Amino acid sequence: MAAVAVRSGPTQPPNSTVYVKNLEERIKIDDLKEALTEIFSEYGTVIDLVAKKNLKAKGQAFVVFEDVEAAERAIQEVQGFELFDKPMLLDFAKTQSDATVQSEGTEEEFELHKRRRLAEKERKQAHQAAEEQKKLKRPAAGAAPDAASSRPVKASRGAGLKSSNPGAGAVVPEEYLPPNKILFVQNLPEDYDVDGLTAIFGRFEGFREVRLVPGRKGIAFVEYEAEAGAISAKESTSGMGLGAESKPIKVVYQRQ
User: Which one of 16, 18, 220, 256 is most buried, by most CB atoms within 10 A?
Assistant: First the structure.
C-alpha cells in the first residue's frame, strides 16, 4: 500500500465502527472483505465487516472494532493508503453498528436499535421516491408548457392518485411511505375477521386495534400506540402467506 494526501480528518464523533469509501468496485466482495480484514486486524479485534455488492453500496464498507481506540488508530494510520490502486477514505460511521449494540447492550436495546435503523431507512426511501417524482414532473428548463400539459388530468376513479399537473404534489409510491403508527393491510383472505387479524398483529408492542372497511373485502387498518410497534409489525408480517392458498399479504404504512 502507498499513502496519498488526505484533505481532512474524521467528520463524525468517535465510535467503534469505521466507514471506508473510495474502494475499487470491480473487486469481488469476498476478495475485498478478505483484504480489508487483513489490513484492519492489525489495529484491533474486528468483530464485523460489512461490504455489499448492490449499486448504492458499491465502493464502501463498514469495519466494526471491539473498541473505539482501535477504530481511532485505524483511521489515523490507514487514512489515504491505497488498496487495489485506490486511496481509502476513512471516517467514523454515523451510527453504531448492529454488532456493537448487540455485544454491548441488552436484547431490548438491540431490538430498539434495529427498529430505529429500519425507520430511518424507510424515511430515506420515501424522501428519495418523492424527489424522483418531482424530477419526473418538473418541466425542462426554458420550456413553455403546452395547453395539454397545463390542464389537470383526472385520475381514474378509486386510484387515489392526485393530479398529474406538474405543479401538483408528488405522489410517493405506497411501498416508500414514511413510517407512522397505522398500517394498511391488503390482499387479505375474505374469511379473515377482526379476531383473526388481532391474533397476528396483536403480538406486537403497543397494539391498539384492527379496523375493517365496511363494504370492502381484503383490506384492513391496524393501529399501534407508536411508530415502533408498527415498524416491527410491518417488518414481520409483510409478505406473510394467509388462507388456504397462502396468498402473501401486502403491508404498508397508511398514507397521511
Answer: 18
Q: Read off the pLDDT of residues 170-217 as tens digits, 9 standing for 90 and up.
A: 566 777 788 889 999 999 998 899 999 999 999 999 999 999 988 888
The answer to whether the CB of 62 falls within 8 A of the CB of 19 is yes
Which long-range contacts link 106-112 to residues 24+ away (Cβ below 8 Å)?
111/232, 112/228
Looking at the chain, the number of H-run helices and the number of E-run strands are 7, 12
pLDDT at position 218 = 92
Residues 127, 120: Cα–Cα separation, whole Å: 11
| CB contact at 8 A, 37 and 50 | no
Burial class (CB in 10 A: 0-12, 13-18, 19+), 222: buried
Location of C-alpha cell 398514507? 255
Q: What is the mean pLDDT of each run of 10 residues along the chain (256 residues)?
A: 58 90 92 94 92 80 92 94 94 72 60 63 63 63 51 44 47 77 93 92 94 91 92 88 88 88
Distance, in Å, from the CA atom of 248 to the CA atom of 12, rounded to the nearest integer, reads 42
Query: Three cell numbers at 100?
Result: 456493537
End-to-end Cα, the chain, rounded Å? 52
Q: Can you read off the three cell numbers belonging to residue 179?
A: 413510517
The 3-state DSSP class for residue 241 equals strand
Q: Are strands 220-224 and 207-212 parallel, antiparallel or unpaired?
A: antiparallel
